[in-house]
Amino acid sequence: MSDNLEFDALVIGAGAGGLFTAALLAKRGYRTLLVERLGEVGGRASTRYKDGFAVNTGALGIEIGTETEEVFNEVGARLIVRQPSPGIVCRVSGKDINISAGLPGMANRVAIKLLRLALHVIPPLQPRTGESSHAWVTRFTNNPTVLGLLHNFIGSIFATTPHLLPADLFLHYLTTKGAFKQFGFPPGGTVTVWQELLTSYKRHGGEIWLNAQVQQLSFAADGTVNGATVNRDGIPRQLTTKLTVSDIGPQATLGLCGDANLPADYITTVKRQYQPSAIITIYFASTTPLASFPGFACFSSTRRLCYAANFTQTCPENSPPNWHVYCGASVPQPCTGDFNETNEIELLKADLLDEFPGFAQARILDVVVTRDEWPAQRAMAGADLPNETPIANLWNVGDGVKEWGSAATTACAETAILVAAKIERAYPWQVAQAALEPQQQEHAKAVSQPIPQSHAVDHTSSSPKEAL
User: Phi and psi at residue 49, in whole multiples of 5°?
Assistant: First the structure.
């Protein structure tokens, strides 16, 4: 256990946003402490192991060629994922259509380019102020298949519904951010991605406290954060920090600050915009194959099922030998606030019975319901807060401060990049510091050579657990 209680940067929460941020700060020379209340990293994008099956707690596929890969490249971490081919299919009238390759894939890319051009040159096509995605689409069609795909696609990406998602945000994602990005499944489960990032973080001198919880932040006379009380091993510890980054969501960050240290209008805004949306995911396994698609499937006509994933065709080590593991996910109604959890789970199971012959005989591994204090999204897309706070040296990262039109773990990486850049501008002294500690010099030397990035590498461990 380290006796050092003085840090340049404190990062609260080792979810995707916190891990990305901590890795960037450590690489850039900041003495960084990452504090996580759980015993493992990844937060909602982690993995549990049950009888040899890898069961993810949230994020399933990791996008490549995005901000995620940008962070991994900068800090010298290996992004180990395998790409299924095809990556995404749409199931329409019982047929799986590959929308990422071949003629359908080409038509899809052309359609997006034409849509971008049409929105630019034909003003009446543009969404009206405050218009929802559903309202905008129904101006042009009421085709049930189109509306079903729209509903399930938006549920898959944004954990909300077309009635709630702003049309301009949806179109920005579709035409600018780049829908249908390439992605891969991590062998051993999503947590293995974060273990690689954590290894790089430690190589650069970063420190992590697991099973530790920040209880409150302390403030200097000028109103900036100058330290924190952290409960570690049942013992409250006082530490000092020059800057703080929170990955626990703006609402939870309020509680660490105390109302007296924040303007009343900011507190009101955070509480008003806090609308976490929920997702229900059922993991199931079978000794016989239940799906022909190797990656994700999005559905056109379901009660609740938005998407399904097939893990073991690409990553057989995610299950015991001769087993196949899948999941299906839904966005409950309503997607924010209270809902009938039992009823929503039964509706999802009914869809899985329809779409997966043999599901009735499958083994249900887990039913993961993310809601309330452990939400699918801490802010629905379009309701995100700025990553800056009224406190000069306190920032938020993660899924409560996503950029306009961003989603998934890529959005968390994007927030980390933006916040790390702001910190570097505000505190350039650490980046410019040439005299690193001897141990840090060795860490920097060890990662000075770029690590070849592979999106289709073999997992060398004999079991997913050994990867941890």
Answer: -115, 130
| pLDDT over 90 percentage in the chain | 76
Q: Are residues 155 and 20 in the same domain?
A: no
Domain of residue 268 covers 6-46+59-76+189-274+379-461
Would you say residue 52 lies in a domain? no
Pair 173, 193 in one domain = no
* pTM score, whole prediction: 0.90
At residue 185, φ and ψ (nearest 5 deg) are -95, 135
**Residue 284 domain-assigned (yes or no):** no
| 199 and 253 belong to one structural domain | yes
Least confident of 117-126, 406-415, 433-442: 433-442
